[in-house]
Structures are given as C-alpha cells and as structure tokens.
C-alpha cells in the first residue's frame, strides 16, 4: 500500500462518525495492551447498569456474564456492540483516545461522547470522523505502525470479522478479504475498509442526506465496486 490517492471528495469535512469511531478506540486499546497498561485477557463482569442499546448482543446478555477485554473488543467490531464500546472507553479513557488521535495526525476525528448518549447529542456533543484521517488510521494498522505487528494483525482479524456486509462488501466477490468497520445513524451511513486485492487499498465512504438507508448502502457498494474494478 504505497499511499497514492486515487479519488477524493469533500475531504476537508468532518461527519458524524456513527460506529466508525470504533476504529481508533480499538487502536487505542491495542496501544494500551502494548504498554502493558491493559491486559487483553483480563476478565470483566457485565453489569446491567453498563448495558447500552442500539447495536450489539451484550445488551441482552445476563448480568454477571464474564468476558475478557479481548472478547469485548471483538464484539465491538463484529456486531458493533455499543455496550462493549462503552466498557472499552472507560477502560482506556476518552482523553487518552483523543490524545492518540492527535498523535496519529488526526485533527477532525474525535470521540466526544459514549455510545447511545442521547443527552450529549442534544447538547451538541457528537463524535466525528474525517474520511482521509480514517484512511490514514487504517493504513497505520496495515503498515503495522501502531502498537506492534502481532496486535496489528489481531486488529485486522477483528475488522475482517465485521458482520455488516451491506455496504463496501455488498457488491464485491464473497471470497475477497475486507477488514472494515461500518457506522449507522439516522443521518449518516458509513464504512471504512482495507480491501485486500493484489493491490490492497483503503477507502472510507460516508453518505449524508439520504432518504432511505438502503439508498446510502447501494451508493457505498457501487463506489466500492468501481474502486475494486480499477485496482484488483
């Protein structure tokens, strides 16, 4: 992945991140693991108080369920689990995540609230991403420039296991490896991915102002297919 840019559109804007913000949360977790500040094998007991709605499976899990930090991170990516995400934000620290984003060169991508915090949204505190910055973060993972190579490979494996295939993967070959994280809000649909063709490439697409979610998903799928056909 040589860093060549093939197409850009509105790259100066920041958009509500939805769950794509979970990429830098995952990266920050692995940085902490690398520094031995977090043990990925540590067991966490789920409480009802920390359950969050929206996406994921942990909101329906029984109180007291035991999960390792690694399993919680896997669920944050696989089913975009909001309960898992909020547990990890507390473990890592929101300030640490934003400090890492600054260290990694991101100026527009920021974590300003936990998942499903309706009051924070009403107050104007939203999470934001920028397409170029998310691409840069994914390239850091691919190039093994965050945490260490073993942890970068683990992040890629988690991202390959993302269950939502209605966007970038939707029109691509089923056997094509795609490490990605999707995001969904009523007002934005996004996906950011490393696509493992013979010339691996990263892409981030965010659609705003759509009438139906399916319309946004088709646009993302169409654009991904165009990119794949040009770079396969």
UniProtKB/TrEMBL annotation:
Could you say which EC number(s) this protein's record lists?
3.5.2.6
Spell out the coiled coil positions from the record.
none
* Classification via Pfam families: Beta-lactamase2 (PF13354)
Q: Name one GO molecular function term.
A: beta-lactamase activity
Domain Beta-lactamase class A catalytic, first and last residues per copy: 3-206
- BP terms from Gene Ontology: beta-lactam antibiotic catabolic process; response to antibiotic
Judging by the UniProt lineage, the source's domain of life is: Bacteria
Gene3D superfamilies associated with the record: DD-peptidase/beta-lactamase superfamily (3.40.710.10)
Q: Which reaction does it catalyse?
A: a beta-lactam + H2O = a substituted beta-amino acid
Q: InterPro entries from the xrefs? A: Beta-lactam/transpept-like, Beta-lactam_cat, Beta-lactam_class-A
The record's similarity note reads:
Belongs to the class-A beta-lactamase family.
According to UniProt, the name of this protein is beta-lactamase
In which organism is this protein found? Emticicia aquatilis
